[in-house]
Amino acid sequence: WSVILKDMELGAKTVVWAAGILTNEFYTKNKQFLFSSQNKICVDDFLQPQSFSDIFVGGDAADTKYSGLAQTAIADGAFIARVIEAKIRNLQSSDKWPRYKTKTPAHVIPIGANWAIAEIAGFVFSGRLAWWLRKLADLRYYISILPFMYAFHIWLDRSDWRDQNPVCRTIAHQTLMSGPDNKVVEITPEP
Q1: CA-based angle 73:145:2, to the nearest 5?
Q2: Residue (of 131, 126, 140, 139) closest to 186 by Cα position
Q3: What is the spatial distance between Cα 90 and Cα 141, in angstroms, rounded to a whole number?
Q4: pTM of this prediction?
């Protein structure tokens, strides 16, 4: 394989392309990919585009139920790694490979100091508990990418940066969430 850019060519055995939230022109210029009505690449149960056995598409570019969310992109990357591992282990029969299963991600939106709204497994709740869940999710993520003490230090230092960000606060206050009975409810923080 090689990747050809405007001013260079890179040789590689494995290429991982991370390209942002819109379908990258790398895909749209290649007429061999099949696109969905949302302009995302149609993929099979192994996150491979039709007619390609050595290419994988995940995250924002893949036509999967929750593409566009960071949690989905991370899970897609881990899934693709498991499929590649199965191929490396010479499990030629695809019936032995893992199959992609959609997982509903949890949503937790911080809305102010010590307050957030959460939707987990279809259950919507708000308040301090939701805020703590978000903080713990942030800590879990920091620990997954950084040494523990460094991650913990960053988590303590950045404990409420989203709570103080005026853009985040404005968007969160304007957010409409769908409740369990599918009625739209406006959520505002407690005073």
Answers
A1: 55
A2: 126
A3: 33
A4: 0.62
Torsion angle in degrees (nearest 10) through CA of 116, 120, 124, 126: -20
Question: Which tops the pLDDT comparison, 180 or 139?
Answer: 139
pLDDT, mean of residues 168-191: 43
- Name the residue among 64, 61, 70, 82 with its Cα closest to residue 17: 61
Q: What is the per-residue DSSP string for 62-125?
A: B--TTTTSHHHHHHHHHHHHHHHHHHHTT--SGGGS------PPPEEEEEETTEEEEEETTEEE
pLDDT category, 17, cuts 50, 70, 90? low
Find, among 95, 98, 96, 94, the residue nearest to 76 by Cα: 98
Please tell me the least confidently modeled range out of 48-57, 59-68, 93-102.
93-102
Q: How far is CA 57 from CA 3, 72, 80, 176, in A?
A: 16, 12, 8, 31
Average pLDDT in the 57-76 region?
89
How many Å apart are CA 152 and CA 26, to the nearest integer? 38
Give the C-alpha separation, 27 to 60, whole Å: 12
